[in-house]
Amino acid sequence: MDSFWTKKQLIGLSPMDGVTDAAFRYITDKYGKPDILFTEFVPVEGLARGATKLLQSFVHHATDTPTIAQIYGTDLNAYYQAAIVAAELGFDGIDINMGCPDRAVARKGAGAGLIKTPRLAQDIIRTVKRAVIDWSEGQSMEKVQVHDEITQTILKYRKTYQFHVTKKILPVSVKTRIGYDTVVTEDWMNYLLEAGPIAISVHGRTLAQMYTGRADWDEIGKAAALAHDSTIRLLGNGDISSLTEAKQKLKTYRLDGILIGRASFGNPWIFSDTVADYKTRLKTALEHAEIFAELLPDAHFVSLRKHMAWYCRGFDHAAEVREKLMHINTVDDVRRILREIV
Ligand SMILES: Cc1cc2nc3c(=O)[nH]c(=O)nc-3n(C[C@H](O)[C@H](O)[C@H](O)COP(=O)(O)O)c2cc1C
């Protein structure tokens, strides 16, 4: 399939719940220009129940950078519907989360919990692949009985932002870890490869490791070697702290791409290999707050506070300013605090 996934080695922004919302993606896109962007993950069962609030994670800005909607859950029917929803919202791809270690998610068998039920994981990939084909051939939200409130919200959103959606078969990818409580890279990868997603992103830790220890890049390299016998793209992920390091890992482990997560906090420039001085960072923080208010008018500023703090380092009294930013509720609050410094 001709897709952005197959074009070249990709360096992308990793999906992060509570972080990669539309405003963060906008800023990262503008100042870093990664090759791909992911949304936060959205539970398919929640969408099926009509929880319109979840669509906030699926708000996106106009950009040529491929933007991929990430979903998670266990229910096949809900996956089918969620895939149609993501397609109707104009995303460029759909990614299935099979790596989240959060207890609330994994205990229900979703996220990294799927590593323990590989047959279900395969069924999920096949279901989402079928949904995107059906959608390209005319399947609609109404016909598959997507919850009426979700459908209405999407129709309203499309009218407000006046965007046009082209019917095409969206690529379906997976993001996962190297095991549940022990490393099972080879077995797990073989199941995934058999179900044929277009790409697999592998975070080099097990669920049990959560975010502790170091990501095991040799295991990622093993996964890449297995994928080399197929057309499936393999991306590595875990602990990358610079573009130079990302490029080294691409070469050493013969990967098709790298995802960068935490090192992008307050640092969209990581993708363009530039270093911003503190004034630029603070100006960008203000721009981030402005675009947050514009793109996500219903979102609470609480979720923006950490972003503001992440930009705020490397100058006198940075800790004091960070503390003040922990109480912002409006763009004006941000302006008032930052005006004292830049
Ligand atoms: C705050 C936070 C939220 C995350 N949420 C998601 C998510 O929604 N979906 C996902 O696939 N991974 C999620 N992850 C995992 C990251 O995408 C990435 O795999 C992990 O942070 C390792 O990469 P890094 O070392 O470059 O950060 C999250 C990580 C963090 C720190």
Can you describe what's shown?
By secondary structure, the chain is an alpha/beta fold. It has an 8-stranded parallel β-sheet with strand order 1-8-7-6-5-4-3-2. α7 runs parallel beside α8 and α10 runs antiparallel to α13. It is globular, with a radius of gyration of 20 Å. It starts with 9 loop residues before the first strand and ends with a helix.
Amino-to-carboxy terminus distance: 49 Å
Helix percent band: 40-55%
Strand order, biggest sheet? 1-8-7-6-5-4-3-2
Biggest sheet layout: 8 strands, parallel
Q: For this structure, what is the CATH class of the largest domain?
A: Alpha Beta
Order of helices and strands: EHEHEHEHHHEHEHEHEHHHH
In the CATH hierarchy, what is the superfamily of the largest domain?
Aldolase class I
Number of helices: 13
Catalogue the unreliable spans: none
> What is CATH's topology name of the largest domain?
TIM Barrel
Whole-number tally of structural domains: 2
Overall 3D geometry? globular
Please state the average pLDDT score. Answer: 96
Bound molecules: flavin mononucleotide
Give the C-alpha Rg. 20 Å
Number of strands: 8
Portion in beta strands: 5-15%
CATH architecture of the largest domain: Alpha-Beta Barrel
SS-based class: alpha/beta
Assembly category? single chain
